[in-house]
Amino acid sequence: MVVYLDILLLENLIVNFFLLYITAQTLRIYIKLRYMFLAAFLGSLYVLTLIYPVPKIFSSLIFKLIVACLMTIICFRKKDLNLNLKATAIFIIYSMMLAGLCIFIEFYNSKSLTFDGGFINFSYKYILIAFFISYMVVHRLIIYVKDRKEITKLIYDVEIITDNNAKKVKAFLDTGNELREPATNLPVMLVDKEILEDVKIGGGNKFYIPYKVIDGSKGLLVGFKPTTVNIYNGDTYTSRDMIIAFSDHRLSELNEYNALLSRGII
């Protein structure tokens, strides 16, 4: 029997990726695809033990369990022992279910298909792999569309009015942002610096807002207090007092919005 190593590794990579994918779905945990791919790739290398002569320990049940555990640790990157054990158990259960399904199809079905009177050799595993890929692509697209809809609902038209002019921006309501200016206790709206580059801040209207990000790093934002800020909701708007702070970095990679509203504003 001729075995093409590259095809074998690719097939196992896809299957492992799919199993990790549905394991993450079951646990309702968001996983970055690069870690899922890395875990699936390392797991696919285990198939080499079936081709090349290796010590018996590599074919033992204990070693297989260790490989499954390492795959889930690499994929989920969590320090919670209970979560890792649960993820490993679910991954193994799905692997056994898939193996049983493959054996069932192999035992009861032919390895060929007919189409329009023609005869085509087609192994069941390619049907399964096509299903795996289609499922993951469609699921990711559905998630993407849902995320876009949710983001759109949280984007508001905002008008920043100063003594000299008025600027309109699209602001995203960041529900996890509670940034406030400490002296006035006013909420802070973060705006792309380039949007307000022509705004001149006087000495008495200049504020420094301390902030701290998740990784622990700290800094100061420079801001000012405009005359008023109008937040539109359809045809109506609400006027609010707030501090406008400048962001040196673009707030939206897709340019969907250019400002961030804190939770205390709305």
TrEMBL record:
<dbReference type="GO" id="GO:0006508">
    <property type="term" value="P:proteolysis"/>
</dbReference>
<keyword id="KW-0749">Sporulation</keyword>
<keyword id="KW-0064">Aspartyl protease</keyword>
<protein>
    <recommendedName>
        <fullName>Sporulation sigma-E factor-processing peptidase</fullName>
        <ecNumber>3.4.23.-</ecNumber>
    </recommendedName>
</protein>
<dbReference type="InterPro" id="IPR005081">
    <property type="entry name" value="SpoIIGA"/>
</dbReference>
<dbReference type="GO" id="GO:0030436">
    <property type="term" value="P:asexual sporulation"/>
</dbReference>
<dbReference type="GO" id="GO:0005886">
    <property type="term" value="C:plasma membrane"/>
</dbReference>
<feature type="transmembrane region" description="Helical">
    <location>
        <begin position="35"/>
        <end position="52"/>
    </location>
</feature>
<keyword id="KW-1133">Transmembrane helix</keyword>
<feature type="transmembrane region" description="Helical">
    <location>
        <begin position="58"/>
        <end position="76"/>
    </location>
</feature>
<keyword id="KW-0645">Protease</keyword>
<keyword id="KW-0472">Membrane</keyword>
<feature type="transmembrane region" description="Helical">
    <location>
        <begin position="6"/>
        <end position="23"/>
    </location>
</feature>
<keyword id="KW-1003">Cell membrane</keyword>
<dbReference type="GO" id="GO:0004190">
    <property type="term" value="F:aspartic-type endopeptidase activity"/>
</dbReference>
<feature type="transmembrane region" description="Helical">
    <location>
        <begin position="127"/>
        <end position="145"/>
    </location>
</feature>
<feature type="active site">
    <location>
        <position position="174"/>
    </location>
</feature>
<dbReference type="GO" id="GO:0030435">
    <property type="term" value="P:sporulation resulting in formation of a cellular spore"/>
</dbReference>
<comment type="similarity">
    <text>Belongs to the peptidase U4 family.</text>
</comment>
<keyword id="KW-0378">Hydrolase</keyword>
<keyword id="KW-0812">Transmembrane</keyword>
<feature type="transmembrane region" description="Helical">
    <location>
        <begin position="88"/>
        <end position="107"/>
    </location>
</feature>
<comment type="function">
    <text>Probable aspartic protease that is responsible for the proteolytic cleavage of the RNA polymerase sigma E factor (SigE/spoIIGB) to yield the active peptide in the mother cell during sporulation. Responds to a signal from the forespore that is triggered by the extracellular signal protein SpoIIR.</text>
</comment>
<dbReference type="Pfam" id="PF03419">
    <property type="entry name" value="Peptidase_U4"/>
</dbReference>
